[in-house]
Please model this.
Amino acid sequence: MRDLIVVGGGPAGLAVALGAARAGREVLVFEQRAGEIDKACAEGLMPGAVRALAALGVDPPGHDFHGISYQGGATVVRAEFRSGPGRGVRRTALHSALREAVDAAGITVRQQRITEIGQDRDQVTVGGERARYLVGADGLHSTVRSAAGFVTVPVRRQRWGQRRHYALAPESDFVEVTWAERSEAYITPIGPELVCLALLSGTRGSFDQQLSAFPELAARMARGEPASSVRGATSMRQRVRSQVRGRVLLVGDAAGYIDPLTGEGIAMSLAGARELVDCVVRDRPQDYERAWQRVSRPSRLITSGLLWARRQPGVGQAVVPLAARLPRVFTAAVNTLAG
Ligand SMILES: Cc1cc2nc3c(=O)[nH]c(=O)nc-3n(C[C@H](O)[C@H](O)[C@H](O)COP(=O)(O)OP(=O)(O)OC[C@H]3O[C@@H](n4cnc5c(N)ncnc54)[C@H](O)[C@@H]3O)c2cc1C
Model:
C-alpha cells in the first residue's frame, strides 16, 4: 500500500509530494488539469516561499523584488525585506518548475478529478487506489474537504480577485500596493518586460471597472499591451474548523484561507506542506493541526486585522497614512509575513 495520496497538483500538493518522496515515502498525486497550470494570483513569492522552494530543489525563473510599498493618495511607504529577496514568478513557470522536480523524483501525477474518498481506521481509498494517508491540497473549494466531512464556517463577506499581465518594464523592485476606497491594486514585477496587475475588492465588477478606481495605474498600464487574459477568483475566504480528520489532512488553501491582501498564500502553503510531511513521516497526523495553527498564526492575525480595518468606515483609508507614520511597525509586519 502507498504511504500517501495527494489530491491537487498546485504548489501545496506538489510540495507535499516532493517532501514525502525525499523522506522515502511512496506518493501518488491526482490533479484534474493537464499541462502547465495557471491561476488567478498576484504572483509574488515572499522570501520564505523562495527559500522553501530552494529547500525542495526548486528555483523558478522570475524577477526578484526587495520589499513591499503601500501607496494611498500622495502617501507612499516602503518596507524592505530583511531576509533576502522575494520573487515575482508566473504561475505557469512555478508549476513547471515544481512539476520538473516531481517528475525527476519519480512521483506519479495522474490526471483525474477526484469526487469521492473513503477512509477507515487503517487506510484511505481514492480514485481506485489505497494509501495510508490522504492529503487534500485541492484549493479553496476543496472536494476532499467536503467529501471527508470537514466542518466549514459560512463566511458573510467575500472579496473578489482578478489579475492581468502587461508587457511593461517594472518601475520598481518592490511589490507596489495601491489602496483605493474599496479595493487594492498590486503590481508585481515578473520579468524585464512583464508585470502582473492584481485587483482585490469587496464589490463585484469587471477588471476594467475595478481598474477605474486607480486612474494613475490605468494610465500606466495603457502604455503597455495586455500580455494575458483576465483571470479571477471568487469566495476566497474559507474558514475550516480543523485540518485533520482521521487519515485525511488538509494543506494549502484547502486548509483555510483568508485573503490575498498580504500576499503570502504560497509561502503558507509551503510551510504547511513541510509540517504535514513531518507529521506523516513520524506517523503522528494528530500533531499536524497544532503545527498548521502555529505556522499560519502570524499571517492569519495580520491579514484578519488589515481586513477588519478595511471594512471600518474611514479606517481603511487611514491604513497607508498610519503605516507612513509608523514605519517601524509597517516594516516589522511586512517582515513577519516575509518569513
Ligand atoms: C487574486 C489572488 C492573488 C493572489 N496573490 C498571491 C501572491 O501574490 N502571492 C502568494 O503567495 N499567494 C497569492 N495568492 C494565494 C495563492 O494563489 C494560493 O495560496 C496558492 O495557490 C495555494 O496553493 P494550493 O496548492 O493550496 O491551491 P491551488 O493553487 O488552487 O491548487 C489546487 C490544485 O488542485 C486541483 N484540484 C482541485 N480540485 C481537484 C479535484 N477534485 N481533483 C483533482 N485535482 C483537483 C486544481 O486543479 C489545482 O491545480 C493569491 C490568490 C488570489 C486569489
About this structure: The two ends are 36 Å apart (CA to CA). The chain has ten helices and 21 strands. The first strand starts at residue 2 and ends at 7. The chain has a mean pLDDT of 96.
